[in-house]
Amino acid sequence: MKRQRHNQILNDFNTATTFPKFIIRTPYEPHASYVYTQNIFYQVQKEISRVEDNCFQKNVISSNGVDTIIVLEKTKNITIRDTEHTIKHSTKDGSFKCTCMHFEHVGILCRHIFCVFKFYGIEQIPEKYILKRWRRDVIPTELLKRRFINSFDDSNFDMTVIDIFSMVDHCVSFLSHDAAKLKLYLDEQNKLKKKFVDDCPNHDLPTRADHFKKLLGVVDPYVESDVNDIQNPTDIRNKGCGSCGKRLKSTKEMIEKKSTKPKRKCATCEQMVHHDKRNCPLKNAQK
């Protein structure tokens, strides 16, 4: 687990502080670098780079709101020079589906669909084809940063604190390679601290004991309020409590003990069962 956390922190740092090099000047690369993590971006970039030289659009057939596009792809195989792939585009919902099934298997769009995007003038990857598990923000900020105890009941306050620490952490990580800009950023933070903290009166932060007292309804440290919603439970009988000199048996134990007893014929239902005519279910149903 420690190694996994270290690798996760290292990958998050590389994704947030490094800029990938664009191979082909297409609008898909900047958008992919903005939404995908660094490792997934390189896989998407590989598919985009194969479009210019290897993929060519052959023809388009439209029928009943569905466009069927044939894309030829050059391969390195000696026997097969070109490979045909069929892409179906629905004009109703704007969906694309390729016969190579690359998106269904890997989770990123294939080079054939990127080739078709040029025909329809699409400059960004549609949101429906950006899976959540490949995004930069797949892990919520509140799970990565520590949570802070506050004296407000509004949950928006907690999210504001998390956003502030996340922004500061991102800026420090981004400027970690430039000592001059990092020093300027520190000077600006000191100015903000003097503006919002040094010139404001001190407020006593609530302690852990204060939160427990508030939860229990205590108004004053030594005076309890008349209304207390937390009460001691009553009428509890647990297995093994020893009340009445008998141990409480579980349902499984009672069923196993009942199954070992021999069956006898009931005079009411005339079947071989574990009851008699006094407690027969059929007799109770007739009543």
TrEMBL record:
It comes from Lactuca saligna. It comes from the Eukaryota. PANTHER family: OS01G0519700 PROTEIN (PTHR47718), PROTEIN FAR1-RELATED SEQUENCE (PTHR47718:SF12). Signal peptide: none annotated. Coiled coil: none annotated. GO terms for molecular function: zinc ion binding. Residues 85-121 form the SWIM-type domain. Keywords: Metal-binding, Zinc, Zinc-finger. This is SWIM-type domain-containing protein.
